[in-house]
Amino acid sequence: MIRKISFLLLAATLAAGQVLACTNFLITKGASADGSTMITYAADSHTLYGELYYQPAMDYPEGAMRDIYEWDTGKFMGLIPQVAHTYSVVGNINEHQVAIGETTYGGRKELATQEGAIMDYGSLIYVALQRAKTAREAIEVMTNLVEEFGYASSGESFSISDPHEVWILEMIGKGEGEKGAVWVAVRVPDGYISGHANQARITTFPFNDPDNCLYSKDVISFAREKGWFEGKNKDFSFSDVYAPVDFGGARFCEARVWAGFNKVAAGMEQYTEYAKGLIEHTGENNFASNRMPLWIKPDKKLTVKDVMEMMRDHFEGTELDMTQDIGAGPHKLPYRWRNLTWTVDSVEYCNERAISTQQTGFSFVTQSRSWLPGPIGGIIWFGVDDTYSTCYVPMYCGVTEIPECFREGNGDMLTYSETSAFWVFNAVTNFAYLRYDAMIEHIRDLQGQLEGRYIAYTPAIDQAAKMLYDKEGAAKAREFLTTYSANEANNMTAEWKKLFQYLLIKYIDGNVKKEENGQFVRNEYGLPASPDFPGYPEWWYEAIAKSTGSHLKVIGGAGH
Questions:
Q1: 463-501, pLDDT tens digit by residue?
Q2: Closest alpha carbon to 370 in 158, 133, 100
Q3: Which residues are the signal sequence here (predicted)?
Q4: Residue ranges of the domains in the chain?
């Protein structure tokens, strides 16, 4: 059994929700500024606590078995044979720089359950990370496991990368009375980027190109048997058959991919209507015809900072901009408390579902770099809470210990901890929601300073670790990287705690304290200078006056 306790603790936090829950972007070597591959992930759930998990490499005797617990619930699913040796894993990247993320798309409801199946989507990820040296090996491990032991989840999109390749694997079970799953995996062409966000995105695919496309042998025949597809094989679309896109799939899911693409490539305005949920259907099979491409070429090669910024978006500058409608309030808050839809006078309306959302437990950007040894080349830039206001700190994949601020058991969703990054970051964001347009500037400033420093330091840290690796061995390099990663993560948390203290002093009670030369101003007697009272913007006062009529009018005041 591998770290049963850790998996159960995380599973308990995930039980409430994978619905519309995650966002991934995938960056190939040729699309990145430094030649690394990258994938992103935001784990968005109202009950998910932000922690980082470590699984050490292990050796096992012949005949050893591995317990499988359902990732979302902690339910014991069964046993599978253990392999002789497993690799170390930090979060969602292993010591060979293989990284895996996911988004759940659900798909056809009749395929959502499979009695007797053992392998759920989360177990597939973490078993594959322990067993695979490359992305292709990870695909093989995952698909072989579901074929042998059944697939116990609904439809899932996986992002899988290694230092050379980036793949999307989309899978859905075969339902009751069947075993296993149907699936397609495609390699993102070098120089391009892709993304997915809780909506299956692979449509048609090549049948005789194993270098770039792999698929289950019955992916089309199974659909024909069920009566879901009658056309020619070349016209078969995995997504349109197994997970047709509807309004929610476009507006709440695909719109996030559109927003991320829009930050790095021109021309995405042609897909605005689709992102808004206006789906066109044409052709013999009546498939959606105005969908976005599976991958695009960015206007320039992307740095790791560019990719971090792709994960920070509320549709700013588009028709869906969450800071512009009255729901943002007087301080342009780009968040809407759930539910996603609501009804007025029997008419249903929706809130936008952006990449950045308040309920994120953790998120990351992984880098896999082919020019460095495995334990040094892989980095998981890890952050907790909302992606827009988090700070991504580098955790090298060769670390052997998790820093206190991210450590398992350091608080949970019902237990506050002073040393937990999750609670420190949530203290900052939840206070900032009160006067967002002012406070977010301070948050973004510190975020930029720290991330800029980490990125600038990375080449020197790489070089020092490589020198230790070559002269004294991998263990010394890992020790150095563990110390560095832990120090930066814990120091970042301390800086964020100072930020909270500063924001609390400056903005308490809706006032704004005066500052000069970085110091709060006192009067000549040492008392605080009278604060500013910024009030609300004019349009907000006008909206209040219009909605309240004469109720708030001053009797005998102006206008009487």
A1: 999 999 999 999 999 999 999 999 999 999 999 999 999
A2: 133
A3: 1-21
A4: 4-322, 515-548
